[in-house]
Amino acid sequence: MFRFMDCVDDAKRALSDDNCERGAATLNEALRLWQGPPLVDIHAGPLIATHVARLQEVRFNSLELRIEAELKLGLHNELIGELVGLAEEYPVHENLHAQLMVALFRSGRQAQALAVFRKPHHTLAEELGIEPSRRIKRLHEALLSADPELEPPRCRSGALVRTLDLLTSGPPA
């Protein structure tokens, strides 16, 4: 587990320096180290159960971060299959759906990207009685208008453009 955590920390440093290639590669290395559930051979009392839950969350966050880095590298086609599976496994996880929508849009599949929005929107409304977040609604609007911000990233002075900046910025102009 220590090696996994070290890799995650190294990847975060690389990504904070806009080194998406090193960050994605290091996160891939960290995720390859992960072998099944953590601490499975230890009796899970409350303290261990809390630690296991934290480790699983770090792993999941690392997976999301790796996907974002690979989207920044323009690997949208390669990510679609993985993202489809993750979206099915986590039907109300908006960020995974957002990443899938971006990957589909960049692969020339705008209609499918829009369909991805409808599924969690329906699940959130019908099962939980809540609306999607403002950031996922902004992404939906951007998809509808084919906003140029959603286009694959371009290198600028050696640094890659942020992939999902649109999700945290204001509504499309």
Can you offer a commentary on this structure?
The N and C termini lie far apart (45 Å). The protein has eight helices and two strands, in the order H-H-H-H-H-H-H-E-E-H. It is globular. The longest helix is centred in the middle third of the chain and has 27 residues, at 46-72. The protein has a two-stranded antiparallel ribbon. 68% of the residues lie in helices and 2% in strands. Strand 1 and strand 2 (159-160) form a beta hairpin. It has helices at residues 2-16, 20-33, 46-72, 76-89, 94-106, 110-128, 134-144, 165-168; strands at 155-156, 159-160. The protein is an all-alpha fold and 173 residues long.
Layout: helices, strands, pairs:
Elements: H1 2-16, H2 20-33, H3 46-72, H4 76-89, H5 94-106, H6 110-128, H7 134-144, E1 155-156, E2 159-160, H8 165-168
Antiparallel strand pairs: 1-2
Helix pairs in contact: 1-2, 2-3, 3-5, 4-5, 5-6, 6-7
What is the makeup of the main sheet?
A: 2 strands, antiparallel
* Radius of gyration using CA atoms only: 17 Å
Distance between the terminal alpha carbons, to the nearest Å? 45 Å
Oligomer: single chain
Poorly predicted ranges (pLDDT <50, ≥5 residues)? Answer: 155-173
Q: Strand percentage, roughly? A: under 5%
Return the string of H and E elements. HHHHHHHEEH
If you average the pLDDT, what whole number results? 83
Give the strand tally. Answer: 2
Strand arrangement, major sheet: 1-2
Class by SSE composition: mainly alpha
What is the helical fraction, as a range of percent?
A: 55-70%
Shape: globular
Number of helices: 8
